[in-house]
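User: Quick one: structure for sequence A, then sequence B.

Assistant: Sequence A:
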Amino acid sequence: MKLALLCAALVAAAAPSFADDLVARRGADTARLTDAACTNEQVLQQIQAQARPAFRAALVEVQGQTFQACWGTTGDAIYLLFEDGDEGLIPVNELKTELSA
């Protein structure tokens, strides 16, 4: 379900490094990507040990429900992995910088 809501056409770009959160919005649904390391054990158990340091923390709200996730790049899109094993993709061009106050 989350995959269907977050998937879209891939774009040719790499994820930039950033100091503030990046946010993608689609209607009322949001994905907030942070630069903090992913620490969610349920997600990390699904990722090969050598790849874990590359994953960052994300918070995703879909249809009013909040989910913790970890994100990484797939070369040309953002890949999300959720606690329940669900996955999602976000085109890089949908990300906007959300400055902290």
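Sequence B:
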Amino acid sequence: MVAVGTLKKLDEKGVGKALLKEARLENGGPSCTLLQFADDKGQMLSARIYQAEKGDNPHFLYFPAEFETDETLELLAKGLNSVGFTLVAFEYRGTGQSQGEFSLEDVFEDAETFYNAVKLWMEQQGRKGDLVVMGRSFGCTVAIHLAVKHQKEILCMLLESAFDSGKVFLERSGIDASHIPEGPIFENRAMMAEFKKPVMFIHSPRDVIQSLTEVEWLVAESRSKATQFQIAPSGTRQELANQVGDLYMEVVEQWVNLRRGIRPPRKRPRP
């Protein structure tokens, strides 16, 4: 699991706060509803539900990027909804309606609280769709850890702009990492080796935070033969988050549906 002692020291140095300095999750807008739930100390956390009509279609449990905004989240939700998928996006502490201050040490426990709240909401609403765990940028490390813990209950995982080395990720994100000890911080590679379900990796060839070669170390640890590595025709990871279009959704829809045993309709041959 994560190096808890190291994460606590990073929080004390203000690394978590610095990581989310560009996050702009403020107002969910009219297209979503708010799901609120309490942690074991009674502090309120929240998530945004962008609900598709069919409750037996997949539900994406989403962990946002450190640079996520209302606009990028709305764009992803609109795309997933267009193919019948529901998006439930977690709001980290200090963003949106979640109370408290963001903590690298606590975020994995918060993710577990979020997971249980979503399961309860689905049960109450009579929604029986498969669960897909998804993360973007920093959210990938939270997604990996949650997915490994609950892999028997989920269909698959989707990681956009993932990363292998936590120290490299922080350094290239403009955060002082001189005080960070050598060795894995988030254990992404080790955790991926424990995950047996299919994974789709989506990555930009122009990503300056994590190159294609570097993220391949993470991809190589996937245990499933159905895992895919998709290179997205885009700029940086922030630009990729703003370019969720029809082609992106077509690829995601077909790959997820194949995991459900649904094959895409045959295209008519051209005359």
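The first strand starts at residue 33 and ends at 38. The mean pLDDT is 92.

User: Thanks, that's what I needed.
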